[in-house]
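Researcher: Structure for this, please.
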Amino acid sequence: MADRARLVGVNHVVLEVGDLDEALDWYGERFEFELRGRHRKMAFLDMGDQFLVLSAGRTQEPDGSRHFGLVVDDASKLPERDFRDPWGNRVQVVQYSEIQFSKTDSVLAGMDLDGLEKSQAARQELREKGLI
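Model: Predicted structure, token format:
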């Protein structure tokens, strides 16, 4: 069906939080990020060619099985890889080297992450899909 748009990635995810300053502090204690900007009740956390949005005004109950995954350079710097933030957003952390998700060399360089390598298993997964 050539008439459908093909999914090619995720540009951003928006998380509802209670208090924006508190959320920036909470996420800042766990992750290194650049603040792309703030607008009204939203803060934009830069992740190279993607971003995460924190939006003040949580309106739903804590998440059950629904979650999102954040990719990090070194997951060993976090005490756990699966947790909830104070507003009930469930976060799963995955290490860049362990998964097929890839950034271009120029994006990695722009993020000062030159030299991040993929594990053998991740490279095999990429090869099987014809991505390397």
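Researcher: Any notable elements?
Model: The beta strands are 12-17, 34-39, 42-47, 50-56, 68-72, 82-84, 90-95. The radius of gyration is 16 Å.
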